[in-house]
Amino acid sequence: MIGIVVSTTDEASQHIGDHLLDVGDFEAVGDGVYRADGFELREFEELHIDLEDPAAPFDDPEFVVVVSRHAGDTGPLLTAHHTGNFGDAQYGGEDRSLAAACPNAHRLVVAALRE
Questions:
Q1: What are the tens digits of pLDDT across the range 87-96?
Q2: Rounded distance, CA 23 to CA 12, Å?
Q3: Which InterPro entries does the entry link to (predicted)?
Q4: pLDDT tens sequence across 32-48
C-alpha cells in the first residue's frame, strides 16, 4: 500500500489531495482517512514538515508520498523529489538526515508528470 500524506494547513496540499480523491476510487473509512485499491490517503492538521513520523499512522506502507506546496525561483512547478536535508534543516526535518528513496516510484511519477 502507498500512503499519501495531506496537510490540511497547506492549501496546495489540500488542493492536490482533493484532486486525488476526485480522480481515484477512494472510500472514506474514518475522519480524514480514505482508501482505494493499493492506496491510503490521510489528512493531517500539522504541516508535513512538522510531522515526526508521517509513515506511523499507515499500516505498513511500501512508501509514503507527501503532497505539498513547493517554492522556487522558477514560478509555479509540479515536481517530485526525495525528502531530507543534506545540511541544516532550515525548513523542517532533522539536520543532515535523508529519507529512504524510492527511485523507481520517483521515475514513474516524473514520467507521468511529463505526459
A1: 998 877 788 9
A2: 17
A3: DtdA
A4: 999 999 999 999 999 88
Which residue bears the cell 508520498? 65
Give yes or no for a contact between 39 and 75, defined as CB atoms under 8 angstroms apart.
Answer: no
Q: By percentage, how much of the chain surpasses pLDDT 70?
A: 96
Q: Is the dihedral of CA 69, 104, 55, 89 positive or negative?
A: negative
Average pLDDT, the chain: 88
Q: Which CATH number fits domain 2-114: 3.40.630.50, 3.40.190.10, 3.60.70.12, 1.10.10.10?
A: 3.40.630.50
> For the chain, which residues make up each domain, given as ranges?
2-114
